[in-house]
Amino acid sequence: MRSDYITVTQVSGINGPGDDSFMKKTFSIKTLGCKLNQYESALIARQLAECGWEARPFGEAVDVVIINTCTVTDRSDKKCRNYIRQGARFSRLGGAVVTGCMVERDRDGTAGMKEALAVFGNGEKRSMARMITSLMELSGPRYKDSGADGSAEAPAIKADGPFGDDEFDESAVAPLYRTRAYLRVQDGCDGACSYCVVPSVRGAPRSRPLARVLEHARRLIDAGCPELVLTGITIGRYESGGADLAALVEAIAALDGDFRVRVTSVEPTHVTDRLIGLLGLPGVCRHIHLPLQSGSDRVLKAMNRPYTAGRYMDIVERIRERDRDIAIGTDIIVGFPGEGDDDFAATLDMVGRAGFAYVHQFAFSPRTGTPASSITPCAGRATIERGERLRRLAMETGLEYRRRFEGAELWCVIERSDGRANMAISDNYIRIRLSGVQADDAREARIARVRLVRAGHDANIGEMARQATL
User: Fold this and answer.
1) What are phi and psi of 14, to 5 degrees?
2) 32 phi, psi to nearest 5 deg
């Protein structure tokens, strides 16, 4: 389940001081984009809660509405601007506080929106509670910084301190949900993909110190969180005092407690044999996400991706040799400028050979200012048709992978109900709907054994196994 807003009641211990909420200031957060943005929304929510603010769902009337933006494509910007306008209507101050990558890419343009109350860059998220509180004290009914010509634009308030030198203790950030916690280990990227703007809005790679990551992990485990999901922009570039990503995973998995750690998206060129060897060991999920983007060497070169299709398949084969049951997921862009029928056929061949557990596919959408945005795009009809063909193949490869586990018992984290049944997610990333169980038998936020009864396109059905609890 995706997070569109943060609520205080979702996370144990996030409430601010005192029990009387009569005079509490209220806020809501709308989060767009990646897992790291979701983590940072939790960071902002925790800061505000510790200052006595109360979180409400996005869409309710509150004192302050915060929009945490994404700018990966031009379409993303349009979506963010719509939410800024919508959020302004819910704010008693008459405008939205805007943060995130769209601010980093176009700070002046974002601040110039009449619905923007204030703008904060990514590096300022750790100080937002203090700055929002100051803004409230200054604002009165509405705060706008008027220029010499009398025009109004949102103040671009800045905070001091590089990554790792936090004003707010990041280890105090609670999970978005009690069942799975995003654990930020890294930020930034130094890649040069021809379609991507992320390096310019997230900056160069920098890693959170190992001791701070372990302290944060320890707090989450002690709070009863059964799964820690490592997140960042390029987590494969993690480095702290000589410790790389594999060493970090080992160190977290060695902590005491009933929990597991999940490695998410790792660039293919950052995968090491040591990291592969950890997948599926006690405390480490049998799952890794390896972005492919295209199975065509010609398209990969045009994308400026630093590998070939052959090198990618070599990594997949090394993972399969380690354990054929490890779930491998991927990202694929359909309709990249210049992609021909033969290029797309190569992508389909790669999907079939790799046997991905799932595919996140995206129709190419240009990002103004990137090299790829100046190239004539593929015809819309061709992109749509190719997307449908890829979707059908990915559904079949995913189902084939899941069917291998029918009748098997899998270690799962029990999640909240989807409205019809309790849900569980296995260590190899299979989402399972539980049937025929009492609520007490499938309590949220614990690791238990679940038998996969039937895998399907629409849903995977399972049941609690005997002696299920870890």
Assistant:
1) -85, -15
2) -120, 150
Q: Alpha carbon 380 to chain centroid distance?
A: 28
* 83: helix, strand or coil: helix
**How is residue 319 written in tokens?**
């993972």
Pairing of strands 422-426, 409-417: antiparallel
pLDDT value at 11 more than 70: no
Q: Where does the pLDDT of residue 433 fall: very low under 50, low under 70, confident under 90, or very high at 90 and above?
A: very high
- Distance (Å, whole) CA 70 – CA 105: 10
CA–CA separation, 298 vs 353, rounded Å?
19
What is d(CA 357, CA 317) in angstroms, rounded to the nearest whole number? Answer: 14
SS3 content of the chain, % helix, strand, coil (to 5): 35, 25, 40
Structure tokens at 455: 């895998």
* 108 pLDDT more than 50: yes
Token pair of 317 as six digits: 């084969």
Burial code (b: 16+ CB inside 10 Å, e: under 16) for 402-432 equals beebeeebbbbbbbeeeeebbbbbbbbbbbb
CB atoms within 10 A of CB 290: 21
Domains, the chain, with CATH or none: 8-153 (3.40.50.2300), 179-289 (3.30.750.210), 324-404 (3.30.750.200), 409-469 (2.40.50)
Asked if 216 and 170 touch (Cβ cutoff 8 Å), the reply is yes
Interhelix angle 341-354/309-322, nearest 10 degrees: 10
Contact by Cβ (8 Å): 118, 106: no
Task: Please give the pLDDT value at position 142.
Answer: 43
Q: What six digits make up the tokens of 461?
A: 């059905």
Condensed to tens digits (0 to 9), the pLDDT of residues 370-412 reads 999 999 889 899 999 999 999 999 999 999 999 999 999 999 9
As a whole number of Å, the end-to-end CA separation of the chain is: 24
Return the number of other C-beta atoms located less than 10 Å from residue 330's C-beta.
24
**C-alpha to C-alpha distance for 168 and 367, rounded to whole angstroms:** 33
Is 230 exposed, middle or buried, given 0-12, 13-18 or 19+ CB atoms closer than 10 A? Answer: buried
pLDDT in tens, 20-38: 444 689 999 999 999 899 9
Map residue 33 onto helix, strand or coil: coil
